[in-house]
Known about the structure:
Chain A is of the alpha+beta class. Chain A has helices at about 1-20, 65-70, 115, 120, 130-140, 155-170, 185-205, 215-220, 240-245, 250-255, 265-270, and strands at about 25-35, 35-50, 50-55, 80-85, 85, 100, 175-180, 205-210, 225-230, 230-235, 260, 275-280, 285, 295-310, 310-320, 320-330, 340-345, 350-355.
Amino acid sequence: MTLDKAVLDSVEAAQPEAAANPIAVRFQQVARHFGTVRAVDAVDIEIRAGEFFAMLGPSGSGKTTCLRLIAGFEQPDRGHIEIFGEAVEGVPAYRRNVNTVFQDYALFPHMTVLDNVAYALRVRGMARGERHAKARKALALVRLEGYDDRRPVQLSGGQRQRVALARALVGEPKVLLLDEPLGALDLKLREQMQVELKELQRRLGITFVFVTHDQGEALSMSDRLAVFNDGRIVQVGTPEEVYDRPRNRFVAGFVGASNVLEPAVAEALCGRRGLYSLRPERIALVGPGEAAGAEAVAVEGRIDSLQFHGATRRLTVAVPGATLVVMLTAALARPPRVGEVVRLAWPRAALQAMDES
Amino acid sequence: MADAALPLRAVESGGGLLRRLSDLLVTRPRLMLLVLLGPPLVWLGVVYLGALFALLLQSFFSIDEFSGLVRREFTLRTYGELLQPANLDIIIRTVTMAASVTLASAAIAFPIAYYAARYARGRWKALFYLAVMLPLWSSYLVRVYAWKLILAKEGIVTWIFAELHLTWLLDGILALPVIGGPSLSISYLGTFLVFLYIWLPFMILPIQAALERVPASLIEASGDLGATPRQAFATVILPLALPGVVAGSIFTFSLTLGDYIIPQIVGSSRLFIGQAVYTHQGTAGNIPLAAAFTVVPIVIMGFYLWGARKLGAFNAL
């Protein structure tokens, strides 16, 4: 009872601070140029405390540079960066309470697993016994026990990843930065780690900033995500917002697959002006006699190609003025065939207007 | 029609003897290894180890003091002679010099190598290699004699000190016991400076190679985890560069131990091991004692490597 009360009190005590300053990382018009290359160009971000924030973009879009600006490996050429309300311009990485899981893990090859994990505590001057005990706890947290005396070279990729994670978490950072941490893992392990990372973040309540070029990863893991292109942020929002309402052509094509209906095509097919995005899974095949529904657009087309993906089938269908990608469930009574003429239909609500730029 | 010219068989057969030989070697990697490694191994085994063994054998013979001939009987008398104070002085002098030269060249080489490995790119890297290697293009003797002139009492160093009104400083340094002397070119300090200059490239290059293999992310990771630059150096950079430092120190240490030209041209007239070997096998005709002197650097290097291994210098390899 008393313990519970103490915990509640401390939570309450922490509340006003959290409420007064819910922003973990704030970028204001931040720019970082390398020679003539504008790696990051006038970026504004607000990452809220305790959220899982993904920075998504193709390589060279500026997402990793943004991560390095938060870590302190790079300094901005222009603009302002705050971490939990404190300006960090001129503050070196070693004086920021922010830790990083590196893309190549960057484990120290000359140290054991335990010494790697205890490193942050060692440089703070913590006694050997105490820091090893804490390092063991961190290793238990990432479910990697019994490897204390191994060297990094003796571990598999997945195990190295866990060591890197434990090492970054042991110092209890305020923000954890993850630079494509799952990129080097095979598919099965990657999916498993996605679940584990998300679960870990929920349990610890630490702000995670996750850089990835894998849109599936960003969608499935993050609370909010920022889509980067050419050193700028194109769109920020929850995964649902970004997927359902892509702001422009780039987001529509990069986050998931999309049919982009050019203004002329949109006008001809749906009677609407402007640039539209139409997700392939929103399109259905309707039989010759079936009604398409009152609020639906129906159009006839010929199947150009067909791919079987197990759970789904991907079709490309030539309709007047465009070729549409259609994603169907594989469990169909009568599978379609190439060359067949079919009728496609989608609800008007599935059409998402986008900026024409 | 052009297709008809191409052979349609799955496997091409035939060909000359050379081609069959290369087929044989490619499909049997062990045979290839044998062909490639055989000659150098024979060379190493017979010429190098054989010579070393002959040398060791000689050191267990002794010289007949009346006839001056080598007595080919097993004895430890020569080693007894080696441990006499005069000879022991030579050994201590040489080892101290080699150790000082090694420490000083490591201290000077590290920042240079670090810059070259971490920061120099493209043109600057080429310039670095050129600057480090350029001295090796000219003759060793020419460079040593040049240094004798530089360090001489009438040389440029004395002149610079005089122009800067620092003659008192140079005189003060030369007045130091043991390392001083009448002029830089006739002092241990001078010998030390020349050794340092001549062997520096052999320290810079291995350290640079070792630092080159340390990923930049490791240094960033240590900073990220809260290590100050000093801590990052002590806990990450230095341990990972240590194999390079040890490799470099093997060069500088053993080269200094064995050299007999530099101390003869620049320095006091007291002997170093190399000079002692030279004198004993030449004018004195005492081959066994010369051989025993040669064993000293071998034994010292053996202990040196063993110690380095114990300290974990090769752990990061």
